[in-house]
Amino acid sequence: MDPIKTQIVVVGAGPGGYAAAFYAADRGMRVILVEQEKRLGGVCLNRGCIPSKALLNATSLVVAARESEHRGIVFEPPKIDLAKLRVWKESVLQKLGQGIAQLAQKRGVQVICGRGYLESSRQLRVETAEGQLFVEFEHAIVAVGTKPALPKAFDLGNPKVMTSTQALEIEEIPQSLLVIGGGYIGMELGTVYASLGSQVVVLEALDTLLAGADADLVRPVLARAKKAFREVRLKAKVLSMSTAGKHIKVTVEYNGETKEELYDRVLVSVGRVPNCEDLGLENTQVVRDEKGFIKVNSKQQTDDPHICAIGDIAGGVLLAHKAAKEARIAVEGICGEDCSSINLVIPAVVFTDPEVAWCGLTESEAKTKGIKVEIAKFPWGACGRALTYDRPDGLTKLVIDPETERVLGVGITGHGAGELIAEGVLAVEMGATARDLAECVHPHPTLSETLMEAAEVFYGHATHTFVPKKEPK
């Protein structure tokens, strides 16, 4: 069979891959999109962002019903049908996957279902169910993503030891669940299972949850987690793990003590590793770093002039929207346009309860880099809308340049923080000042007002909280 020829081949159809394929097609290029799974969307749609948020939303109803009694509204204890929950979750994924496939068809993007292997810098072999075929390309965009890390010490070959992939299937509601790792994946899935009724214990080796997030933003999450979970243990280590009948026996080191505990299930959430195995990168000039991620420049170009890499496989923060932005940068670079990933404002959102979101410079980063900043905070206990949600535990925080008054960073923790952070991204990206935020009229009563009032805090005249007035310059 003669090779199929194309201008661009994209390997991997996650949020970076299909965004790259669609953008290239919109720019008039011939594009082939290769994906080894039948449903497009990658990890994000099938085993990550979308199913986890679907489950978080569904199970939050259980918590809301449980906590409504003090409002004078009492519900019967909820009955949970896991089979129906799984079917509903799958229906969401199916709709989104079909939508992506239809968009590919409308754009004239040829989709090949199979595993891609780079035979050279200009040729991709694709193993399909019908046999192998070859694609000759001018440019390739590698977007194969990452997978959950499972250290050998935890890989018992026992289905009761789960990564996020298995945990999202919700096969059962274990009476006891150990979550190893207090990052965003562990905390989100721990929240799902705790809402369903599991006794959840979170073990984190560091001295804080959600490493990398601002300490002020993490504090309300830790306080809530201590109530929702059976226990949260910081600076704790798992020394060993083994199968013990119907349980998993775990030896834990915590508070200077070593003890053995039994759990019905264990979720290992200790990071993700790149999907570079059996990809044929050794047949190209592509270079990987010490952790296995593909090295790229600011245009997402690898050391091979014919190959770009985007998204998780290129390292950095492992976020779907970062991959989608890098997709456009890669295509624009291929088109010879001026583009760069330097100084991108990439927001991060953790869908815990409460949610945590931030963008731009954080207070801790400013201290580390020796950048002089001023901090303005507005507590949600002073926000009427937050109190109507019974969620006064939030906080909106601005990181401001004291000389120019430019907003350098925004952090929000609280109900719906993930939706609110977009205004922060706009402010940082557009170089807005605190006065710009303060003078933009925000609707009342809304949570968005907290951004305006945080800016007013900077000037000492926030309506709903008292702060000393700033001396005029």
Summarize the structure in words:
The chain is of the alpha/beta class and 473 residues long. 31% of the residues lie in helices and 26% in strands. The protein has 13 helices and 22 strands. It has helices at 17-26, 42-47, 49-66, 82-107, 164-167, 184-196, 215-228, 320-334, 363-369, 384-388, 417-429, 434-439, 449-459; strands at 4-11, 31-35, 110-113, 115-118, 123-128, 131-142, 146-148, 161-162, 176-180, 199-204, 231-234, 237-244, 247-254, 257-263, 265-268, 272-274, 307-309, 348-350, 355-360, 374-379, 395-400, 407-414. Strands 1, 2, 3, 4, 5, 6 and 17 form a 7-stranded mixed beta sheet that branches. β10, α7 and β11 (231-234) form a beta-alpha-beta unit. α1 (17-26) packs parallel to α8 and α3 packs across α6. The longest helix has 26 residues, at 82-107. The relative contact order is 0.11. The model has no long low-confidence stretch (mean pLDDT 96).
| Strand count | 22
Q: Any idea what the shape is?
A: globular
- Count of DSSP helices? 13
Strand content: 25-35%
Helix content: 25-40%
The Rg value, from CA coordinates, equals 24 Å
List keywords for this structure.
seven-stranded mixed sheet; 473 residues; 22 strands; single chain; globular; 13 helices; alpha/beta; five-stranded parallel sheet
In short:
The chain has 473 residues and is of the alpha/beta class. The chain has 13 helices and 22 strands. The chain has helices spanning 17-26, 42-47, 49-66, 82-107, 164-167, 184-196, 215-228, 320-334, 363-369, 384-388, 417-429, 434-439, 449-459; strands at residues 4-11, 31-35, 110-113, 115-118, 123-128, 131-142, 146-148, 161-162, 176-180, 199-204, 231-234, 237-244, 247-254, 257-263, 265-268, 272-274, 307-309, 348-350, 355-360, 374-379, 395-400, 407-414.
